[in-house]
Amino acid sequence: VVTFNAAVGRAVTMVCIDLRGETAASSVQIRLLLSLVPNVTRLELYLPFPVPRSILFNVRLPRLEKLTTTIPHGALPIFLNSHPSITTLALGACRSRATVCPLHRMDTQHLASLHIPSTCLVAAVYPAVVNLAIHLPDTKTRMCPTLDNLPAFPALECLAIEMLGDERNILEHISGALPNIRSLSIMDITSL
Questions:
Q1: Burial of residue 44, with CB atoms counted within 10 A of its CB: 0-12 exposed, 13-18 middle, 19 or more buried
Q2: Could you tell me which of 93, 79, 115, 13 has the C-alpha nearest to residue 46?
Q3: Using one digit for the tens of pLDDT, what is the confidence trace for 58-108?
Q4: CA angle 47, 49, 51 (to 5 degrees)
Q5: What is the Cα–Cα distance from 39 to 31, expressed in whole angstroms?
Q6: What does the pLDDT read at residue 147?
Q7: What's residue 56's pLDDT?
Q8: What is the 3-state secondary structure (H, E, C) of 88-148?
Q9: Percent of the chain topping pLDDT 90
Q10: How far is CA 147 from the centre of its chain?
């Protein structure tokens, strides 16, 4: 429909592409689809692994405010840095082989809401983040060391974290790292 009537594509503000059940995703088709909906403000992109690093190459969505994706972090820095309109970012697993998450090159000044693996909090400061959700990448990673080494979140009000049941002093770590939060959610993922 969109290819025959461009006005339909311009009217679309939310797109969800969920191909997790597939064996592969076509970069060309995804880029073509996204070029047909230039006014998207919310994009959910769930793709099977492996994902080509070029998946978002030259994709321009100037009104994009919220991005939720399972795309490996190595394919995201250029896209994220060219979309300062994104204020809400929710990311799946990093899947990077590097010692530092590729998101360390990302400008974080505009982010107000962030959902990220604990191993990928790499910026020195997240000045505008009000809502933060940190998830554990695996059952070997502990939340307490993440909290002890947390970057600065001067505007943070709401925190949601995952933990493992044996992290008994988690509240001490939270109060030490983020004494001014107003809302706290802790989920024990030991049995998941």
A1: middle
A2: 93
A3: 999 999 999 999 999 999 999 999 999 999 999 999 988 777 888 887 888
A4: 75
A5: 14
A6: 92
A7: 93
A8: EEEECCCCCCCCCCHHHHCCCCCCCEEEEEHHHCCCCECCCCCEEEEECCCCCCCHHHHHH
A9: 58
A10: 18
Please give the structure tokens belonging to residue 114. Answer: 């962030």
Peptide bond between residue 50 and the one before it cis (omega within 30 degrees of 0): yes
Residue 176 parent element (H or E): helix 170-177
**Two structure tokens written together for 68:** 């939720």
Residue 174 · residue 158 · CB < 8 Å: no
Contact assessment for residue 135 and residue 163, using Cβ atoms and an 8 Å cutoff: no
| Contact in structure between 59 and 34 (CB atoms under 8 Å) | yes
Convert the pLDDT of each residue in 36-51 to its tens digit.
999 999 999 999 888 8
Q: Is the pTM of this model over 0.85?
A: yes
Which amino acid makes up residue 40? V
